[in-house]
Sequence to fold (140 residues):
Amino acid sequence: MKRSVILINLFFLCNFNIVADTKILNKVMYIKSLFSLVHRNPSTHSNSLTTIECGHPIKTFKMVSKKRNTTRIVFNRNWYLVKVGPYEGYINGKQLSNRKVSCFQDKFPKFFDTLDIGINDMFYWGKLHDQYVTGKSKAN
Fold:
């Protein structure tokens, strides 16, 4: 019984034209916050894959649908599909810049080195930057 169900499913999958989105390199962007996290899913509450520092270059991707031949940037331009080293995940667009920014670590390297920030501290700094809400208030 199980074999026949599997064979029927394979038959339908082979006969229907399955078109998947492919990702292509969009541009290289840079981190502008002190530390930032690459997430598994496009949410600030999802698991983190890695922590990156300010000024680190990141490859951002856009998804191209072969069926419609259209291009779209993932998740309404708030979250970007990125690749950092061996990790592929998502990062919030508010933490990215088109140009390399002047970072605190670069301005004051001796002071920054004396802080002796560990991996756990970097993670929590990145988590803090994920939780920041910036913008203009609409309250009167």
About this structure: The chain has a mean pLDDT of 81. The first strand starts at residue 21 and ends at 31.
